[in-house]
Protein backbone atom coordinates (compact mmCIF):
# COMPACT_ATOMS: atom_id res chain seq x y z
CA UNK A 1 0.00 0.00 0.00
CA UNK A 2 2.81 2.41 0.99
CA UNK A 3 6.45 1.65 0.28
CA UNK A 4 9.68 3.51 1.13
CA UNK A 5 12.90 2.54 -0.63
CA UNK A 6 16.19 4.02 0.57
CA UNK A 7 14.47 7.23 1.60
CA UNK A 8 16.56 10.06 3.03
CA UNK A 9 15.51 13.43 4.34
CA UNK A 10 17.32 16.57 5.41
CA UNK A 11 15.89 19.99 6.24
CA UNK A 12 17.62 22.64 4.13
CA UNK A 13 21.40 22.26 4.37
CA UNK A 14 21.15 20.47 7.73
CA UNK A 15 22.21 16.90 8.51
CA UNK A 16 20.34 13.91 7.13
CA UNK A 17 17.57 13.19 9.66
CA UNK A 18 16.47 9.99 7.92
CA UNK A 19 18.92 7.73 6.07
CA UNK A 20 18.18 4.82 3.76
CA UNK A 21 14.80 4.17 5.30
CA UNK A 22 13.01 1.23 3.63
CA UNK A 23 9.75 -0.43 4.63
CA UNK A 24 6.35 -1.51 3.37
CA UNK A 25 3.06 -0.73 5.09
CA UNK A 26 0.56 -3.36 3.93
CA UNK A 27 -3.21 -2.87 3.84
CA UNK A 28 -4.83 -3.67 7.20
CA UNK A 29 -1.50 -3.76 9.05
CA UNK A 30 -0.91 -2.48 12.59
CA UNK A 31 2.44 -1.06 13.71
CA UNK A 32 4.17 1.21 16.15
CA UNK A 33 6.82 3.75 15.19
CA UNK A 34 9.17 4.60 18.03
CA UNK A 35 12.59 6.06 18.72
CA UNK A 36 14.13 8.70 20.95
CA UNK A 37 13.00 12.31 20.85
CA UNK A 38 14.34 13.99 17.73
CA UNK A 39 14.90 10.66 15.92
CA UNK A 40 12.62 11.73 13.07
CA UNK A 41 9.22 10.16 13.84
CA UNK A 42 7.27 13.30 12.97
CA UNK A 43 9.40 13.75 9.86
CA UNK A 44 8.55 10.21 8.76
CA UNK A 45 4.84 10.84 9.40
CA UNK A 46 5.03 14.03 7.33
CA UNK A 47 6.59 12.08 4.47
CA UNK A 48 3.76 9.54 4.74
CA UNK A 49 1.15 12.30 4.74
CA UNK A 50 2.93 13.94 1.80
CA UNK A 51 3.40 17.26 3.56
CA UNK A 52 7.14 16.80 2.94
CA UNK A 53 9.01 15.43 -0.06
CA UNK A 54 12.02 13.18 0.56
CA UNK A 55 15.40 14.56 -0.41
CA UNK A 56 16.30 11.15 -1.83
CA UNK A 57 14.89 7.68 -2.34
CA UNK A 58 11.57 6.42 -3.64
CA UNK A 59 8.17 6.60 -1.95
CA UNK A 60 5.21 4.81 -3.49
CA UNK A 61 1.80 5.68 -2.04
CA UNK A 62 -1.27 3.70 -3.14
CA UNK A 63 0.64 2.57 -6.21
CA UNK A 64 1.80 6.05 -7.23
CA UNK A 65 5.33 7.41 -7.27
CA UNK A 66 5.31 10.29 -4.74
CA UNK A 67 7.56 12.43 -6.93
CA UNK A 68 4.94 12.32 -9.68
CA UNK A 69 1.98 13.30 -7.51
CA UNK A 70 1.06 16.89 -8.32
CA UNK A 71 -0.14 19.49 -5.85
CA UNK A 72 -3.63 19.30 -7.32
CA UNK A 73 -3.76 15.53 -6.81
CA UNK A 74 -2.78 15.74 -3.14
CA UNK A 75 -6.21 16.43 -1.55
CA UNK A 76 -7.75 13.38 -3.20
CA UNK A 77 -4.79 11.15 -2.24
CA UNK A 78 -4.85 12.45 1.33
CA UNK A 79 -8.46 11.39 1.83
CA UNK A 80 -7.03 7.88 2.15
CA UNK A 81 -4.78 8.94 5.01
CA UNK A 82 -6.28 9.93 8.34
CA UNK A 83 -4.03 11.84 10.73
CA UNK A 84 -4.28 12.44 14.46
CA UNK A 85 -1.83 15.17 15.44
CA UNK A 86 -0.08 15.42 18.81
CA UNK A 87 -2.05 18.53 19.72
CA UNK A 88 -5.35 17.27 18.19
CA UNK A 89 -5.89 20.53 16.22
CA UNK A 90 -9.60 20.82 16.89
CA UNK A 91 -11.23 24.16 16.07
CA UNK A 92 -12.42 25.66 19.34
CA UNK A 93 -15.34 27.61 17.88
CA UNK A 94 -16.92 24.52 16.28
CA UNK A 95 -18.76 21.79 18.20
CA UNK A 96 -17.41 18.25 18.33
CA UNK A 97 -19.95 17.28 15.66
CA UNK A 98 -18.94 20.22 13.44
CA UNK A 99 -15.23 19.45 13.85
CA UNK A 100 -15.74 15.86 12.73
CA UNK A 101 -18.01 16.90 9.85
CA UNK A 102 -15.65 19.65 8.69
CA UNK A 103 -13.68 17.64 6.08
CA UNK A 104 -16.97 16.73 4.39
CA UNK A 105 -18.37 20.26 4.61
CA UNK A 106 -15.18 21.66 3.09
CA UNK A 107 -15.72 19.31 0.18
CA UNK A 108 -19.16 20.83 -0.37
CA UNK A 109 -21.19 17.82 0.76
CA UNK A 110 -24.78 18.46 1.87
CA UNK A 111 -25.27 17.95 5.60
CA UNK A 112 -28.21 15.62 5.02
CA UNK A 113 -25.86 13.24 3.17
CA UNK A 114 -23.42 12.83 6.07
CA UNK A 115 -25.23 13.72 9.29
CA UNK A 116 -26.08 10.12 10.21
CA UNK A 117 -22.51 8.94 9.47
CA UNK A 118 -20.97 11.61 11.69
CA UNK A 119 -23.33 10.76 14.55
CA UNK A 120 -22.64 7.04 14.19
CA UNK A 121 -18.87 7.62 14.23
CA UNK A 122 -19.13 9.90 17.28
CA UNK A 123 -21.09 7.20 19.08
CA UNK A 124 -18.48 4.61 18.08
CA UNK A 125 -15.67 6.65 19.70
CA UNK A 126 -17.87 7.18 22.78
CA UNK A 127 -18.77 10.84 22.19
CA UNK A 128 -22.46 10.42 21.46
CA UNK A 129 -23.35 12.56 24.46
CA UNK A 130 -20.70 15.19 23.76
CA UNK A 131 -21.31 16.03 20.13
CA UNK A 132 -22.74 19.50 20.71
CA UNK A 133 -19.99 20.59 23.07
CA UNK A 134 -17.10 22.90 22.11
CA UNK A 135 -13.57 21.41 22.38
CA UNK A 136 -12.36 23.71 25.19
CA UNK A 137 -14.70 21.94 27.60
CA UNK A 138 -13.86 18.42 26.46
CA UNK A 139 -11.44 16.39 28.61
CA UNK A 140 -8.07 15.35 27.17
CA UNK A 141 -9.36 11.88 26.36
CA UNK A 142 -12.51 13.25 24.74
CA UNK A 143 -10.48 15.65 22.59
CA UNK A 144 -8.33 12.77 21.50
CA UNK A 145 -11.36 10.69 20.49
CA UNK A 146 -12.84 13.68 18.64
CA UNK A 147 -9.56 14.01 16.72
CA UNK A 148 -9.67 10.31 15.88
CA UNK A 149 -13.27 10.60 14.67
CA UNK A 150 -12.34 13.54 12.46
CA UNK A 151 -9.43 11.56 11.00
CA UNK A 152 -11.77 8.64 10.25
CA UNK A 153 -14.77 10.44 8.78
CA UNK A 154 -13.53 9.96 5.22
CA UNK A 155 -12.89 6.25 5.81
CA UNK A 156 -9.15 6.39 5.17
CA UNK A 157 -7.16 3.28 4.27
CA UNK A 158 -4.56 4.17 6.89
CA UNK A 159 -4.63 6.10 10.15
CA UNK A 160 -1.45 7.84 11.33
CA UNK A 161 -1.42 8.84 14.99
CA UNK A 162 1.40 11.01 16.34
CA UNK A 163 1.94 10.38 20.06
CA UNK A 164 -1.81 9.96 20.61
CA UNK A 165 -1.43 9.07 24.28
CA UNK A 166 0.96 11.91 25.08
CA UNK A 167 -1.59 13.91 27.03
CA UNK A 168 -3.71 11.27 28.73
CA UNK A 169 -3.40 8.99 31.76
CA UNK A 170 -2.49 5.29 31.33
CA UNK A 171 -6.10 4.11 31.68
CA UNK A 172 -7.28 6.40 28.90
CA UNK A 173 -4.27 5.39 26.83
CA UNK A 174 -5.39 1.74 27.10
CA UNK A 175 -8.92 2.63 26.03
CA UNK A 176 -7.58 4.56 23.09
CA UNK A 177 -5.40 1.65 22.09
CA UNK A 178 -8.42 -0.68 22.19
CA UNK A 179 -10.26 1.71 19.91
CA UNK A 180 -7.39 1.71 17.41
CA UNK A 181 -7.15 -2.10 17.54
CA UNK A 182 -10.88 -2.35 16.85
CA UNK A 183 -10.49 0.08 13.94
CA UNK A 184 -7.72 -2.11 12.58
CA UNK A 185 -9.92 -5.22 12.89
CA UNK A 186 -12.49 -3.42 10.78
CA UNK A 187 -9.87 -3.10 8.02
CA UNK A 188 -7.97 0.18 8.44
CA UNK A 189 -4.17 0.08 8.61
CA UNK A 190 -2.84 1.85 11.72
CA UNK A 191 0.54 3.40 12.49
CA UNK A 192 1.06 4.81 15.97
CA UNK A 193 4.14 6.97 16.60
CA UNK A 194 4.99 6.86 20.28
CA UNK A 195 7.78 6.55 22.78
CA UNK A 196 5.41 5.06 25.33
CA UNK A 197 6.92 1.61 25.92
CA UNK A 198 4.06 0.67 28.22
CA UNK A 199 1.62 1.23 25.39
CA UNK A 200 3.63 -0.86 22.93
CA UNK A 201 3.95 -3.70 25.40
CA UNK A 202 0.17 -4.13 25.38
CA UNK A 203 0.03 -5.30 21.78
CA UNK A 204 1.98 -7.87 19.86
CA UNK A 205 2.46 -5.64 16.82
CA UNK A 206 5.21 -4.78 14.40
CA UNK A 207 7.65 -2.21 15.76
CA UNK A 208 9.46 0.25 13.56
CA UNK A 209 12.28 1.88 15.52
CA UNK A 210 14.16 4.98 14.36
CA UNK A 211 17.60 5.67 15.73
CA UNK A 212 20.49 7.68 14.34
CA UNK A 213 18.51 8.26 11.17
CA UNK A 214 18.09 4.55 10.44
CA UNK A 215 15.02 2.38 10.74
CA UNK A 216 14.99 -1.10 12.26
CA UNK A 217 11.91 -3.27 11.96
CA UNK A 218 10.93 -5.93 14.50
CA UNK A 219 8.10 -8.10 13.23
N1 LIG B 1 11.18 22.15 9.87
C1 LIG B 1 12.37 21.75 10.35
N2 LIG B 1 13.50 22.41 10.01
C2 LIG B 1 14.71 22.01 10.46
N3 LIG B 1 14.90 20.95 11.27
C3 LIG B 1 13.81 20.26 11.65
C4 LIG B 1 12.50 20.62 11.21
N4 LIG B 1 11.61 19.74 11.75
C5 LIG B 1 12.35 18.88 12.48
N5 LIG B 1 13.66 19.19 12.43
C6 LIG B 1 14.75 18.44 13.08
O1 LIG B 1 14.69 17.11 12.63
C7 LIG B 1 14.98 16.20 13.71
C8 LIG B 1 13.85 15.19 13.82
O2 LIG B 1 12.66 15.86 14.25
P1 LIG B 1 11.27 15.11 14.41
O3 LIG B 1 10.31 16.13 14.90
O4 LIG B 1 10.97 14.40 13.15
O5 LIG B 1 11.63 14.06 15.55
P2 LIG B 1 10.67 13.19 16.49
O6 LIG B 1 11.25 11.83 16.53
O7 LIG B 1 9.26 13.31 16.02
O8 LIG B 1 10.84 13.90 17.88
P3 LIG B 1 9.81 13.96 19.15
O9 LIG B 1 9.69 12.56 19.68
O10 LIG B 1 10.54 14.86 20.10
O11 LIG B 1 8.53 14.56 18.65
C9 LIG B 1 15.21 17.06 14.94
O12 LIG B 1 16.60 17.21 15.10
C10 LIG B 1 14.56 18.37 14.58
O13 LIG B 1 15.24 19.44 15.23
UniProtKB/TrEMBL annotation:
Record GO cellular component, one term: plasma membrane
GO biological process: cell division
Domain spans labelled ABC transporter: 2-217
Alphabetized UniProt keyword annotations: ATP-binding, Cell cycle, Cell division, Cell membrane, Membrane, Nucleotide-binding
Domain of life of the organism encoding this protein: Bacteria
Membrane topology: Peripheral membrane protein
GO MF annotations, alphabetized: ATP binding; ATP hydrolysis activity; transmembrane transporter activity
Localization, UniProt: Cell inner membrane; Cell membrane
Function in brief: Part of the ABC transporter FtsEX involved in cellular division. Important for assembly or stability of the septal ring.
Oligomeric and partner information: Homodimer. Forms a membrane-associated complex with FtsX.
Stated family: Belongs to the ABC transporter superfamily.
PANTHER family attached to this UniProt entry: CELL DIVISION ATP-BINDING PROTEIN FTSE (PTHR24220:SF470), IMPORT ATP-BINDING PROTEIN (PTHR24220)
Protein name: Cell division ATP-binding protein FtsE
Source taxonomy: Bacteria, Pseudomonadati, Pseudomonadota, Alphaproteobacteria, Hyphomicrobiales
